[in-house]
Amino acid sequence: MNLNATLLAQMVVFFGFVLFTMKFVWPPLTKALDERAKKIADGLAAADKAKTDLALAEKKVVEELRKARESGAELRTSAEKQGAQLIEEARAEAQRIISAAREAAESEAAVASQRAKEVLRDQVAQLAVAGAERILRREINSQVHADLLANLKQELN
Question: Which of 38, 72, 101, 155 would suit a FRET pair with 134, their CA atoms being 20 to 30 Å apart?
């Protein structure tokens, strides 16, 4: 066999193999590689989108927590104000009740004092009449006795 003929035959077979590979083997390989590259790119894009979504979600969470804290602070402040107002209203009501009770007690004490004075006047008048009776050792008639008591009451007022 001739070296040139062998070389030529090997070249023809090699080019046939290259043509066969380019026509039938290479397109499915490039298609599979392109699909794989597309899947990887889609996965990376999804990962980037997920990272962005995660960052947005974290911002939303931080914002919602801030709003919740503000709302809680407002509620607490409102409750404290309402509690202070209720305490003040209760104090005012207690002062009003105490004032009314004090006025009623003072009025009742004044009435009781007036009654006690009247009773004491009557007793003083009776003691004066009894003393005068003992001094005189005689009974004063009831009309004179009543007049004396009335005069004595008038003098004591």
Answer: 155
